[in-house]
């Protein structure tokens, strides 16, 4: 896996069995700093980051979708994040399937 992430890249960070929507704050000198959308900060050595730990967020998941069955990444974090995005836009009703 390419362990390089540009600053500002949107990713899913898996920590303690949960997926957190996050942004790469910095990537320098072999250290990557992630900030979750919930304000948490996680720091990792670049060499320890795996695909299971960090995955790039698909652009459709970033904006939210109307039909949750069309989420490109389907896990608890993406479902909750999609509901949160819809709540912010006052679109609280979703369809599934």
TrEMBL record:
Keywords, ordered alphabetically: Actin-binding, ATP-binding, Motor protein, Myosin, Nucleotide-binding
InterPro entries: Kinesin_motor_dom_sf, Myosin_head_motor_dom-like, MyoX_N_SH3, P-loop_NTPase
Domain of life: Eukaryota
Domain Myosin motor residues, every copy: 63-97
Gene3D superfamilies per UniProt: Kinesin motor domain (3.40.850.10)
GO terms assigned for molecular function: actin binding; ATP binding; cytoskeletal motor activity
The keyword Oxidoreductase appears for this protein: no
Any one Gene Ontology cellular component term annotated for this protein: myosin complex
SUPFAM superfamilies listed in its UniProt record: P-loop containing nucleoside triphosphate hydrolases
Family: Belongs to the TRAFAC class myosin-kinesin ATPase superfamily. Myosin family.
Protein name, per record: Myosin X
Gene: MYO10
